[in-house]
Please model this.
Amino acid sequence: MLPASTFLDLCHARGVRFITGTPCSYLKPLINAAIDDARFLFRDAVNEGDAVAIAAGASLTGERPLVMFQNSGLGNAVNALTSLCHPFRVPVLIVVTHRAEPGGEADEPQHEQMGRITTALLDTMEIPWVRFPTEPAQVAAALDTALAAMVADGRPYALVMSKDAVAPHALRTKPADVAPGTRELNFSEEMWRKPSERSTRTEALQAVRAARRADEVIIATTGHTGRELYALGDDPWNLYMVGSMGSAGAFGLGLALRAPGRPVTIVEGDGALLMRMGNLATLGAYAPPTLLHLVLDNEAHDSTGGQATVSRGVAFAAVAQACGYARVVSTDDLGPLAAVLAAPRTDGPTFIHFRIRTGAPDKLPRPQVAPAEVFRRLQAWLGAA
Model:
């Protein structure tokens, strides 16, 4: 068995400082050791796809993030790996466990199929992989091979962990033993405009641009939102998500966690937020103080033909408040939107639910700069390249 500290020491020596992921019994010693080690920032994610997106956002700062999760959750990560990491050429180091490994010990029935196809699935996604090292003498070479491939190809690389690869490590860090106490949640939502009378997405994005700070990053979700932001002005501080629907929030969180103090604005739609709504809990829990999360809600999948979402009955801001956002606003009025966008951001993340009408400008252009170039130029603008 490999001591967890050996693996982490060699990761740290190679520039790894940020770790995210979801638990697995095989990963227990490695995650426990990472939580106990003050050299690393470990942040748990609500699912494996969000973990990959968080790591991708962190890599904008020049990080070499490490993502850890169980192979049964590899399916949750497929979209972020193929629709975010691949087009943007984001290299992240992955440790994925191999439950129900062929030829290994019998496991629970839910792991049987994924156990058979784990490595084939990595091959299909064109993600190179090797077995997780089990001896101290093997670790340096495995990490060097992985990191060299990541730099050369701009792609993720996976270490596939078998059972009992890492020696036990008991978690020493414990949460505070205090009662939660009383928490009052008060939110009153008032929307007076008919859908046809609401502002356009373009008007909302113009307000975002007008209120932008000099050092602020704007991350726009896939579809019409990113395309309309591009049409208003292609700037190096913009990132236009393509695909990876629902990952903008996790991506922005990763950046905000590793660039504390930098304003980060995430702009996404109701359909995207509904797709990965659990990430609101992660954002609220880790609470980067200068992050602003704006949801432009037209109650439709506008980019794919205007099919209705279920957002008409959802009080997104109330959910965000319950998840721990410091300030929440819900409105269909450009005045309050502009005021909140311009307000100081110092005491925790802000959430704005802004109802808009459907539709987009005629002949809306698509970004003419490739996703990988969008990522690299933003990384350079941030001073991390």
In short: The two ends are 37 Å apart (CA to CA). Residues 85 and 155 are 7 Å apart (CA to CA).
